[in-house]
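ok so i was messing around last nite and threw this chain in just to see what happens. nothing serious, just curious
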Amino acid sequence: MVETNGVHVNGSINGTNGVSKPLMGPHSKIPQPADLDLSTAKSEDELLKEIIESLRVSGGCVIRNMVGKEVIEKLEQDFRPYISKDKPWNGDFWPPETRRVMGCLGKSKTFALNIIGDPIWQKIGEHFLSSKLQYNWVGDKQELSTSRPQLNNTVVFSIGPGAKDQVLHRDDPIYHTYNSATAEHSLGRDSGVGFFIAGKKTTRQNGATRFVPGSHLWDYAEPPPSDDKCFYAELNPGDGFMVFSGCYHGGSANKTTNEERLVYSTFTTRGWLRQEENQYLANDVEKVKELPVWLQQFAGYSLSKPFMGWVNLDDPMRVINPDMKDAGDIW
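result:
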């Protein structure tokens, strides 16, 4: 007997039409993520609906042509010196042929505005990760609060020839997350959404991110499956891939002799969870001050309402923007 969303069922859950649906697991049919194209979308709203549905069902989504050639070229200029200086990871989680760059918010304004600040990804985060507190009685008054998503981490990945497969893993165990199996997705289950933009052509042969569609709905006690259940996010420069933190995923082996797999990545999480990457030490605050106010807030220099993250019982935005007249209340 399994408890899912408060309903006790024997290996299934009742759908909206009363028909029993089987719980998702390693033996379920693998749902395929959508392959969409920003350049041909009828409207942003229609594109968002399709991305949301693909994430709900499969846990991932490919979106073509999210970033233009000029942005990709500028990102290469900004990060190549840092990639060249990185050293192999001391351990086996990342292959020694992998190079990483972190603290990207402060290292590249182009990354901050075009990757972290991508409007499609921002709206996807708002949809899945915003929290509304409706029952907060303070005396005889009920304070309603909304906690918005925040930046979780930023990493540039360069995988060189000879790298082996990274092991399949979930990212949300950092929050000691356990989810039981469910038949279908419901809001509130997820702790994060990842966003990858290809800097170079990314193929199955040179290390494309692979993930297990549908694994965000499995019981978290289930170990990773074999790679035959994986989908490989093969991308052209500027293409994007979104994935839930709760999906099994990992970088793949680079079986080429002369190709680099280069991707720019970032994750968002709920506003009341601790950020995986410490944005306040990873980035020069003077660089953060150069960014738009809304992006400073998203980076974590704001409140998760109510009260979370205050400085001197006030919104921390007043610390980095002393002239801000109205930072709002702390509810």
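not much to say yet. The radius of gyration is 20 Å.
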